[in-house]
Specification:
Layout (H helix, E strand, L loop, with lengths): L1 H12 L2 H42 L5 H10 L6 H18 L5 H23 L3 H30 L7 H65 L1
């Protein structure tokens, strides 16, 4: 309790610049923690929705039934379901125009799924760059506060005739609190960024694998239609 009180006193006694640096770092830390929990929840939801759709996709349901369900779940569905819907929509649109060339059908469906994939990944990666910035910049901001605080402490010592450790220590301790807060903001952001980056890579690989698997299914359908047309 005494240690906590002494740190609080050090913050109050610090110069205005160091206090502003501490306030900035504390604010950034709070915002980064909010981003961490929001991203944790959103990635968990993405995984859950992808699992559910993949289970339905391989359960033997017809593509038309899955497409009808995906159209109803346009907003509440997951990335995999929206990618499926974009490819299926383009495939059916060309078939309605009496396009029977399998190559044209597959190119159009793949382009639609790739565009949808990029849109989904952009949404999934939201706030990731913010965490990276917090992790890389916060220690330097804290170091700036420390350097400024030490300069301010030594400037104040110039007026003293006798300098002792007791007169130097409080000013340096005040300054070092800024570095500590900077590390407190940076470390969770770096850990979270690395964890989320790995999770997002797994989601990306899973979506790309689904695109290839679904493309193979569409290619067989297109080939069968082309053969029947001839």
């Amino acid at each position: 309790m005494n240690q906590e009180l002494s740190i609080f006193q050090l913050v109050l006694q610090a110069s205005i610049v160091v206090q502003l640096v501490m306030l900035l770092l504390i604010t950034v830390s709070v915002v980064s923690w909010a981003a961490i929990f929001r991203k944790l929840f959103s990635l968990g939801k993405v995984k859950q929705l992808n699992d559910r759709f993949e289970r339905d996709f391989w359960s033997g349901s017809s593509l038309n039934d899955l497409f009808a369900a995906a159209a109803q779940n346009a907003r509440s569905g997951g990335p995999m379901e929206r990618i499926f819907a974009s490819g299926m929509r383009e495939f059916q649109k060309l078939r309605e125009r009496q396009v029977t060339d399998a190559g044209i059908l597959m190119d159009a469906a793949r382009r639609a799924m790739r565009a949808s994939f990029q849109r989904e990944m952009d949404v999934i990666e939201t706030h990731l760059s913010f965490l990276a910035s917090v992790g890389s910049v916060s220690p330097y901001v804290g170091l700036f506060g420390t350097v400024w605080g030490i300069m301010h402490a030594f400037t104040g010592l110039a007026a003293l005739t006798q300098v002792t450790l007791a007169s130097v220590a409080p000013g340096i301790a005040e300054a070092l609190v800024a570095t500590a807060i900077g590390l407190f903001a940076a470390i969770p952001a770096v850990v979270a960024y690395n964890r989320f980056a790995r999770d997002i890579d797994r989601i990306s690989i899973r979506l790309e694998t689904f695109i290839e698997e679904f493309s193979n299914i569409l290619q067989r359908n297109a080939g069968a239609q082309s053969a029947s047309g001839h």
